[in-house]
Amino acid sequence: MSQLLQHLINGLAAGTIYALVALGYTMVYGVLKLINFAHGDVMMVGVYMGYATAFALGRQAQRSLWGVVVIFAVAMVGCALLGFLIERFAYRPLREKPRLTALITAIGISFALSYGFQLDIGFLPGASPRAFPEVITPSEWFIIGDRDVVIWNWQVISFLIAVGLMAALQFLVYRTRFGKAMRAVSYDHRTAALMGIPTDRIIALTFMLSSALAAGAGLLYAIKDTSVSPLMGLYVGLKAFVAAVIGGIGNVPGAVVGALLLGLVEEFVVGYAASTWRDAVAFAFLILVLLVKPGGLFGRVAAEKV
Q1: How many domains does the chain have?
Q2: What is the pTM of this model?
Q3: 153 neighbors 10 (Cβ within 8 angstroms)
Q4: CA–CA gap between residue 169 and residue 234 (Å, rounded)
């Protein structure tokens, strides 16, 4: 029983990180019906921004509360700006083009970021993996029994940060004028523009918000995993995309539920089978869900007119 509880805790901790990245896929798809495959690589850029900021602050400052806040703020603001630039110069000119054109562009941006960051030129980090600074010193906060169940401080902090960001996003989307405008643009951006909604601004802010969430998720992942590399965004981004599809891409609560389920599935596979089976079982779980619910757990399959 204690082993099961430990796996539940570990799975939920991993799932909350996937959820933050999956929300970015869901937001962009909900507004533009575009799969932004560069989203995971934007997360990677945020991790390296946090990495550079931590070293600029120094060993003592990076472990303080204000130091952690500065690291997260710089990474999230920097990625928000990157998201704005990608939307303005890559996706906006293709908005009225066939969706396949935008999809290929997204894949191109993904490769440009992931492989461009492997160059060891100027400020680019190079291909070698690096150890993320220990901005949160690991410590055991809760111990149940004779160390049968251990909850670490980074798990609690990551969970609280992730839940806080997701709650703020839920409030923003469903309780503010910006959220109402976002949902209107998602329904029909041409009609929304005719009704006076600044669609270009709403779409740009959506990209900025999703990119900032990706940066926050990337830092939480780096604090847990410690090893960072230019290709980490491809792996984490793909897992988050799977989570978004499981929940029903375009549905905010669905992205969270799908990510938590994926985190639990992966943890139970690692705990009770073998880590080599983790990715295969994750995709098998995706296929099983889509066989039962083609639109995802909370999604709907829309019938298009021919």
Answers
A1: 1
A2: 0.90
A3: no
A4: 24
